Amino acid sequence: MDKDKDKGGENASLVSLTFRLFVSPPLFNFYNYKARRRTVTENLALIFQSLPYLLEGAVVTLGLVGGSLGLGLIIGIPMAVGQVYGNKYLATLISLYVWFFRGLPELVLLFLFYFGLFTLWGLNLTAFTAAILVLGLRSAAYQSQIFRGSIQSLGEGQMLAALSLGMKKSEAILSIILPQALRVSIPGWSNEYAIILKDSAITYAIGVMELLTRANFIATRTYKPMPIFLACAVIFIFLTYGGVKALNLLEKKVRIPGYAYGRREI
Amino acid sequence: MPKDETNEVVLKVEEIYKNYKGKEVLKGISFEVRKGEVKVIIGPSGTGKSTLLRCLNLLTVPDKGRVYLEGEEITHAKKNIHQFRQKIGMVFQDFNLFDHLTALGNVEIGLTRVKKMEREKAREKAQEELRRVGLEEQANLYPAQLSGGQKQRVSIARTLAMDPKVILFDEPTSALDPELIGEVLEVIKNLALQGMTMVLVTHEMGFARSVANEIIFMEEGKILESGPPAQLFSNPKYERTRQFLHKITELYGE
Question: pTM for this structure?
Answer without folding.
Answer: 0.85
